[in-house]
Amino acid sequence: MKNATASAVMVCALAVCTSAYAGGHTHEMSEAGDTSDASSMNIADSANHRMSHGEVRKVDVAAGKLTIRHGPLENLGMDAMTMTFKVKDPAMLSQVKAGDKIDFVAEEVGGALTVVELHKQ
């Protein structure tokens, strides 16, 4: 009975996460499709809105990964937590060290959560 309850909870959580993730992409696509000046501003605002804040906890150069304690990742529909990300460009790893405060954008790339933009504060 415990396994059935746990499975039902996991299915519900996955459904909520999936719909939140899909909703975020629909919004970005509709803004990108409009070429007016106002939408250009919205796209820039959207890019800034996707930027998340965090603290580097670990830099793993050999694996090409960063462990980041971060706030909510609105563009991915994720709550605040500590997790490990791949990096789009290995040069990003040399820009930061454990303890650094950062602003970053994470996206799903090839099935893996990946830091695609990184700015040290």
From TrEMBL:
Keywords: Signal. The keyword Signal applies. The keyword Signal applies. Residues 1-22 form the signal peptide. Pfam families: CusF_Ec. This is Copper-binding protein. It comes from Paraburkholderia phenoliruptrix.
